[in-house]
Specification:
Length: 306
């Protein structure tokens, strides 16, 4: 009898539409792989979610993104239900979602990360919290939601008080010039290094999820020692944060600096996108792993963590 897999998608974060796209693609792939699939559009209604999950599935495929879906919240519910689920557990999800805490953990493990400080929203509005250039970003959002850049000579605050809906705290981080790199980890295996080349501006939400807005080069055309270091650091970050299943580490690489000096890890995503434009499926395909096989591997490696 085929395993019954509930695919959680949607959610209530700023990344709801991305999650719906990820969930639909994963549901189709799992059906192709022979599973019985139950799509679940998750809203902020715990009772409704529990009803959707009754009778219980054999496995839960977590395709949620953003707050509530990858910060340990839904993971806690699934631990309570004791249904095996994909991706990381409560602690790893919460650690990775808080960008500053994750950076502290990674730095302690010897992973180079940009300097940064968490300040109040009002401090950002009053003036420069650190010397430009720097980046202002929400402490706990993904998909480049809410990010802004402040360059030398800019007099405007690093956030728009009318559009900032990400709480009273902001992460202000030193800007690292250079190239965008990313590495997916599948269990204990770093997959490949992709260079992301936005056709305009930076790799923002639109560039990530709109076809034709960015070019993905896999494998990245970078020096072999840098390539190998990206793989090593991605696996190290996956392990030191306690991640499970699939994760993705994002970097900036300033190739004007010698050796490995220009390589910095920005963050680890415990719920990488699984849309047709997403980076993890591309890296898997580069290794000869078709999308249904990738999703099936995630299901077969699902677990409870406490």
């Amino acid at each position: 009898m085929a395993k019954r897999v509930a695919v959680l998608m949607g959610g209530w974060s700023a990344e709801r539409e991305v999650s719906l796209s990820s969930g639909r693609e994963c549901a189709k792939a799992l059906e192709t792989a022979g599973y019985e699939v139950i799509p679940v559009d998750v809203r902020r209604d715990l009772g409704a979610l529990l009803t959707e999950l009754t009778p219980g599935p054999d496995v839960i495929f977590n395709a949620l993104h953003g707050k509530g879906g990858e910060d340990g919240v839904v993971q806690g519910v699934l631990e309570f239900l004791q249904v095996p689920y994909t991706h990381s557990g409560v602690l790893a999800s919460a650690l990775a979602m808080d960008k500053q805490v994750a950076k502290q953990v990674m730095a302690a493990a010897g992973i180079p990360v940009p300097a940064g400080v968490v300040v109040s929203r009002d401090e950002v509005l009053r003036g420069h919290p650190i010397d430009p250039p720097y980046v202002v970003k929400p402490v706990d959002e993904g998909s480049s939601v809410g990010i802004s850049f402040v360059m030398p000579g800019d007099n405007l605050p690093g956030l728009d008080p009318k559009s900032w809906v990400f709480g009273d705290r902001a992460l202000v981080e030193s800007y690292v010039a250079g190239r965008e790199l990313t590495v997916a980890v599948m269990g204990d295996r770093p997959m490949a290094v992709t260079e992301i080349k936005p056709l305009a501006g930076f790799y923002d939400y639109e560039a990530k999820y709109t076809d034709g807005k960015a070019v993905h080069d896999v494998p990245a055309d970078i020096p072999a020692p840098v390539y190998e270091e990206c793989l090593r650091l991605a696996l190290l970050a996956h392990r030191c944060l306690g991640c499970s299943g699939v994760s993705r580490a994002d970097y900036r690489y300033d190739d004007s600096r010698p050796g490995l000096e220009g390589l910095f890890m920005l963050e680890v995503n415990t719920q990488p996108g699984m849309t047709p434009l997403s980076l993890v499926p591309e890296q898997a395909a580069h290794l000869g792993i078709e999308f249904p096989e990738l999703c099936a591997w995630m299901v077969e490696n699902a677990a409870c963590h406490v």
